[in-house]
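Below is our example:
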Amino acid sequence: MLRGEAKQEVEFALKKGGADDIRKAVAYYGIKIVNNNQILCPFHPDHKPSCTLYKDHGHCFACGKTFHSFDLVELKEGLRYNDSLEKAWTEILGYPLPEYDKPKSKRRKKLTDSDLKLLGLTSGMGGYVEMPVGVVLFENRNKVDNKSQRREADGNYLALSNERVPSLLSLVEKGDPFAISIITKKSDEELAKIRAMLSQTKDPNTEIGFLCLDKNYLKDAKTFLYKRKDKIEKIRSLALSYRRSGVTEVSW
């Protein structure tokens, strides 16, 4: 079925009309043309040709109806508007359909810090840490910026450099297999816990099962657990979607 910009393009072209478009539609339904451009109006009982055909439309001077080729299709076939446009364009006039609209690319959903916290992982934010890059002898310590050195037990100074540490989230988005495996492993652990808790809801000998003897509590517990399960499964799938082709998960 026509839709979006493709529909608009066909609709505009049919309304604007090409040479003999309306005549082709009239001929398709076997309506006789007299006096070169007149027909019995198909939209009301007409005994004397009162409808005149123009290049792109027809107009009845008796009932006042103005119509295009797709209006005639809609009348004769009982089709919906979009289907009438398509039939008039392709079957009657013989034109190819325009390409359907390309679906708008959806912005890729990203893992968030709250997703990590749901799995019991610490914040996924990166930061800067001081990394040792060499030893500064005691006598040379004044030649190095004081902010980038630390005195060691042997009296010498350790030269430091502030290095950016990438966040777990950024590593996952780059397809780092180890970072992805952290997410999947924690997801699997949490899913195993949820399955165990769901199993316990059926066993009155467990604390959860005893509480679930109350039907309202059972309903609320299952709703919570299944929602959590669904959320974690989505997090796991999202993490795996960043995995580069040909790279397998890291084994633990």
Notes: The first strand starts at residue 38 and ends at 39. The radius of gyration is 37 Å. Residues 67 and 83 are 16 Å apart (CA to CA).
